[in-house]
Amino acid sequence: MKRQILEPKHIDFFDKHGWVLFQDLIPPSMLSACRTLLAKNCSTRNVWKSHEPIKKLSFHFLFAHIAAQLTRLKQLRFAFDHYFPSLDNLISFLARGPSLNALNSIDKLEIGLLLNLSDVTSEDSLSSLPSVGGSGTFFSALSSPLDLTVKDIAGPFLLITYCHAHSRYLYKVADPFTHDVKQESCAFGDKLANSYHPLVYY
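Now predict its structure.
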């Protein structure tokens, strides 16, 4: 995977706007493998559990390293990944609440990474959403910095989320997947299980 160099300008941009876009985060070979595996039409959470290439993306140290530098946290835990087959699916989900943190049952969600898994190789888009295959946008989970008014950006998309090292499982009525964590032998108020939510940066 190509090494992305995080520069002060990226951190400054993230601090100001709540998001920052990177190109070429995923190599073409891995992108093709992910796209083949996820050739389905339903929005699904935690696809890493059944798809090894997605697991490599979701737990990748490089992504966690960038996320940690942007949030200035010494530790980050993997929260969940979420597959969206289309832009409409993605926008419908994000529009449900004021922030990504408000839309899930894991508290202290810090940052999300939205990856474009399409086969689009070039795009003249000024959106905060990634529009080219392999590109990705890191964005704050505590605000709503992404432009949800855009049209015609090809998907699918994979959302990877990171939370505080000491995050817990809480009930959130806005989260349609709120009971998924119960399947990990976790009750409301419990700390997240390391086996499903490992520290990916520490």
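The longest helix spans residues 61-71.
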